[in-house]
Amino acid sequence: MKTAQLKKGVIQAFEAILSELSANDIEDMQDKLTVQLHKLTDDGKRYSLDEVKNN
Question: Which range marks the domain in which residue 38 is found?
Answer without folding.
Answer: 22-55
